[in-house]
Every structure is written in C-alpha cells, then in structure tokens.
C-alpha cells in the first residue's frame, strides 16, 4: 500500500476518536507551522492471526525497515521500531502484549476476542486501521482486563488503529523545545498532559525527549448494554537530539515509552 494513503486513512480514523489531536494540529498550523509526524504507534496482541510478526510484512512492503526491539517487562509488552524509506514519512512503533503473561481468566477473555479474527487478517489492506475485528466484550470483561492490563482493555474496545500520532518537535519553527510545546498545549489550549513520570520523558542525555496528552474519552456501550466512558487515543510530542555521530537519534527509549503507554490509563 502507498504510505501516503495509509497515513491519510489512519489520521482520519484517529481524529474521529481523538478530537484534541485535530485541534492541536490546527492550532499549530494557524501559527504558520508545518506539522510533521515523528512516528505513529500501534498496539496488538501476540496472538495469531494478528501478532507483530504477522503484521510486520505490511510495513516492510511499504518500504519500512526494522530498527531494533524494545521490551517492557512490567507491562508484558514487546515492541519493534521501524524506519521509513523516506525521511518525510513517520517512523513506526509496533508493540504487542504477551497474552500468556496475564492471569488465566484474562487470557480466556482475550482468546474469546482473537478467535473471531479471520485467519487472513494480516493480509487485509486495512489491517492496521480496521478498528475492532471482533464484537465488543461485556463491560465486566472490559473492567477485568483493565484491572490487570490497561493495554489489554484498550485493545478490547479500540482494536486496530493508530494509538497515537507524534509531532516532530525538532521540525517546528516557532518552538525552541519540547517544554514550549507543552506550555502551548497545557496552557494556551488547556489540554491536560500525561504527567506519569513527569510531563517530559527522557531528554538530551538519551537524545530523545517525549511528552503526550492524556487520551480523549468516548462512551462505549458494551455487549451487556452497559455504557462506560473509555480512553481512546492521545497525541505525542517528540524532540530528537543530534548524537555524537552527527545525526538525529533514530530510535526509541524504552524507559520513556514505558510511561507514555500510561496515556491511555483510565
Ligand atoms: Ni510514541
């Protein structure tokens, strides 16, 4: 698939449930900024037919190359970073939940969702932006998943979509640094930031500083007719720094990403 069509479809689906992202994007453009994406992040379960290794070929077919793996033992997550063929395109961060690390009852809930996914799912053109490939769970199952893994609960109601887009702060003209962007978002636009571990994760010492908003909210009516307000998606801001070899740092920082995941906590 053509990467431009891919990201256009993703952005449309993402802003439908993340109105704050459209608002921030517009506010920056009305200051005269051209907003470029640093990366786009996806989530999945490490279960066939939708595990990372099965989804990856679609990224490779768009010219992406695997950079390196990342591990988040506390959250039972593994991830890979991917670099685009062209600099103007965003990097991709694809994570998956190690379902076998969950308690047996939660594994069974995830299994009841994943067994509804068609076997050729990973080959579908819209696999990364089809939303839910299963029927909504019950509110009880959602809440049980959320007790154990906010990530699993998020997946059960949001499915396949961009979990977040990320603005490349180092490519903005009118902001000296990430702190200035945070001020603009939190003060001028009055949108709350995810302050888990401090508003800014990382910094020049790891060549990447990141911050994020707290996810928007959406009322979801579950299979048992109970309606609950759930977190949808958030917007991230990343400032990359030049490494000693003279290039912008290309990777991700696990310790920072670990806390960014919490932007979709309830
Ligand atoms: Ni990110």
Which labels suit this protein?
266 residues; alpha+beta; 8-stranded mixed beta sheet; 8 helices; 23% strand; globular
List the helices and strands and how they pair.
Blueprint lengths: L2 H15 L1 H12 L6 E9 L6 H10 L3 E8 L4 E7 L7 E7 L6 H11 L24 H10 L1 H9 L5 E5 L9 H11 L12 E3 L4 E5 L4 E5 L5 E5 L2 E7 L13 H7 L6
Parallel strand pairs: 1-4, 5-10
Antiparallel strand pairs: 1-5, 2-3, 3-4, 6-7, 7-10, 8-9
Helix pairs in contact: 1-2, 5-6
The protein binds nickel (II) ion (NI).
The site of nickel (II) ion has 7 residues, from strand 1 and strand 5.
Polypeptide structure, described:
An eight-stranded mixed β-sheet has the order 2-3-4-1-5-10-7-6, sandwiched between helices. It has a two-stranded antiparallel sheet with strand order 8-9. Helix 1 packs across helix 2 (19-30). The protein is an alpha+beta fold. The model has no long low-confidence stretch (mean pLDDT 97). The protein has helices at 3-17, 19-30, 52-61, 104-114, 139-148, 150-158, 178-188, 254-260; strands spanning 37-45, 65-72, 77-83, 91-97, 164-168, 201-203, 208-212, 217-221, 227-231, 234-240.
